Amino acid sequence: MSIQETLNNAFTKWMEGEGPEARIVISSRVRLARNLAGQLFPHLMSQETGQAVVRLVQDAIADPAVREKLGPLFYAPLNDLSLLERQILMEKHLISPQHAQDEQAPRGVILRPDEAVSIMVNEEDHLRVQVLLPAFQLEAAWRMANLVDDVLESKLDFAFDEQYGYLSCCPTNVGTGLRASVMMHLPALAMTNQASGVFTALSKVGFVVRGFYGEGTEAKGNLFQVSNQLTLGLSEIEILDRLMTVSRQVIEQEQMGRRSLMKERPSQIEDMVFRAYGILTNARLLNSEETMFYLSCLRLGIDLGLLHNVSNRTLNELLVRTRAAYLQGDNKGAMDAFNRSLKRAAIIRKALAPDPGAQNNRSGPESLT
Amino acid sequence: MNCEECKQRPATVHLTKIFNNQKTELHLCEECAKHHDDIPFNLSFSMEPNFSIQKFLAGLLESVTVSASDAGSTSAGNGAGSAPASGYSPGVEDPDEAAEEALAAAPHCSNCGMTYSQFERIGRFGCSQCYQSFAGQFEPLLRRVQGNSRHTGKAPLRTGENLGYKREIEQLRQELQAAISAEAYERAAALRDQIHALEGKLSSEK
After folding, report:
1. What's the predicted TM-score (pTM) here?
2. Which of A45, A246, B44, B194 lies 20 to 30 A from A4 at CA?
3. What is the ipTM of this complex?
4. Do B131 and A146 touch (CB under 8 A)?
């Protein structure tokens, strides 16, 4: 397993598209912020101190006792990767946008071969342990993250304070260091203009709603990430319980919304789904924003039983395969918006073709039939 | 086909309306569609204005500083702050180096050198020790940001054990003081040995 495989392969664990509440919940994520006691936080690090932290962490994951409990993990230094390659990791949600952008201190990512566990090294905190699973599996994600934390803690001296808990670089993460999030597809709430009401209610009880790529990103394609705002004062279990409770409520609202849309405007919904299908299977140029929107329509169509020959897994994979950096991966960058739109449309046509095998040897114009 | 409303952008939203058997068609660009009354449900949804943690935090810090310092200057504010400054006492810094005076006047972390005003600017600490260095000033902020200032969740196993020893040592030290005050020297000697034994465990844990 190498970082090249990770870069070349769009598919990653969270895209499976199956599991509890998979019709609405795309993925569940748990991340723990951890720092090494006494070491400068990454934003103040020199090359040497940064490298020292990397070495400590590398030693920890190479330890036989750690490997025995967590299985093989491999470390990839991000400083050796191009910005484009780092963006691909970001598009797969394996690292944060900030971690992809940052050029300073020595930094990296530790991955489990199935990519369900990724540990960012020297992001805002020394370590950010992330577990990302498909569908609504917060508890399983927490159990895994907790195990990784326990095992790493036996090798590394984490900064912990009796009163403040795990000490993080930014006080918004102190305490548990836990950020749990649920990525949901909420087209009905968005279409019926209920989303902002629901999100305002969520913010009042300590939850934030973000876009597909987290903090500071817009919600495209009706994908929303709900996560806990507070990290101190509640135990990890309490935080997860609350998030699961509010997520279930959002899921229920969305289900009700879908039912009433189908009841009240069946033709419009069908039109929207099949129009999107028509465009995605025929268009020659697709920009990223419209792609996100049409993919959302297809996802809704699958759930409403309108589309049968497309799977959520295909759609999840397309979400990443049609992103700017991933599209340019083969070309080593230098692809303008026009050529990206061209390639994006081609990838989608191929992925959605009724019989992918028959499509392989055919070129564009012939598939017009 | 261009948008019927603005006549500039390409029409990407196509609406067919059937009302009293009267069919009308509407072709709009996404921008105009967002604001159009005839769209029964809005297809595109824009999130509420982006929430910036750093900005938000800076705002909170400002209000904390203002409420904690009536006299105006930051260091005066610390002395007069509602929360007692436990780890830091302004004015007792060694004034050996004149150049350091400005820094000494501002509270700073002895491990990484970050000052509280630097923290206020960037909203991030310099190292884990900053939490102790700025405990006094930072508590009101923590309560504002987190609504709480006490961790109740998981603790690292090793630290958890050490914490237990530390608490026990503290308890024994208090008993030792009491024993000395009461001139119960035999008891004091026994307590001292116990403390030494526990301290030995502590350092061997590290």
Report:
1. 0.74
2. A45
3. 0.83
4. no
